[in-house]
Amino acid sequence: MVNRSDYCISAGRFARLCNTTRDTLRYYQEQGILVPRQDETNGYHYYSHAQVSSFYFITTLRRIGCTISDIKTYLLAGEQARFDAFMDRQYEQLLLQQKELEQKLSTVTNTRKLLDEIRAADIGGPCLRPMMRNVALLCSPVCGAAMDSSGEMVADIRRHLEICRNRGVQAFPVGISLAQQPFLKEEYQYRELFSFVHGNGREVEARPLAGNRLAVMVCRETDGRIASVYHAFASFLQQQQLVLRTDIYNLSIVNVIDPQATHRYLKYLFVGVD
Fold this sequence. Notes:
Elements: E1 7-10, H1 11-17, H2 22-31, E2 37-38, E3 45-48, H3 50-63, H4 68-76, H5 83-121, E4 127-130, E5 135-141, H6 150-166, E6 175-178, H7 180-184, E7 190-198, E8 207-208, E9 213-222, H8 226-239, E10 248-257, E11 263-273
Antiparallel strand pairs: 1-3, 2-3, 4-9, 5-7, 5-8, 6-7, 6-10, 9-11, 10-11
C-alpha cells in the first residue's frame, strides 16, 4: 500500500533535485513510467524520495539507448521481466548501432581521403599522381554501352548499390568507367559502375588498380561541358605517350542542381598508367 506521506516533494523541487525539467517529468508521467501522486485538495503533483532513484534509473537506460517504449515495457512487466535479459537485448542493439556508426565513419573517413587526393590534383588541368595505395574497385557492368536510356541507368545504379550492400562495401561515391581505346578516339562507351574498396579488396573480389601511376583530372563544370573535359584528358594521355593499364574512371563526388536550375558537379577522372 502506498504511503501518501512519502509523496512530499513538489514537482518543481523534484525537477531541481534531479537536474531536469518539469516538461520531462510531465512526459514521463504521461508515459506511465514515473507517476507522481496528485493531491486531491489542490490538484498539485508530489513525488517521493524513492522516485529520485527511479528517475536516475530511467535516465541511465535512456543514455544507453533504450527507448521509452522499452523502458515502459520493462517497468510494467514486474517480476516477469529479467533485468539481465533486458540488458542483453540492449547490448545486442548497441553492437548493431556501433557497426552502423563504424560504417558511417568509414564512409566519411574514406571520402575525406579522396577529397585530399582531389585537392592535390586540382590544378586546372590533367596531371600525374602517385598510385593510390590500398584501394581496389568493386565493379558492376552497365546494360547499354552508350547508357542513353534513363531507365537502364537507374536499373544499373540500383543493381550496383545492391551489390555494394550485399558485400558490405560503401557505395558512395559511385563512378562509371569508359572503355580506354574508344575514349582516346572521343567515342565514349560506358562499361561499368564502380565504388572504392579500401584495402586489398580480396574479401569482396574487388579489382586492384593497375599501373605505376595515375593520370588524373579534376572537373568542376556545368551541363554540356563534360565532352570538352574528356577531350582535354584524352589529349593529355596521348601527348604524354602514356600506356593505359585501366579504363578511364569518372567518379562523381558532388552532383547538384542549384536554384537557377543549373546542373553543377565535381568529377574526378583517373586512369592507371605506366
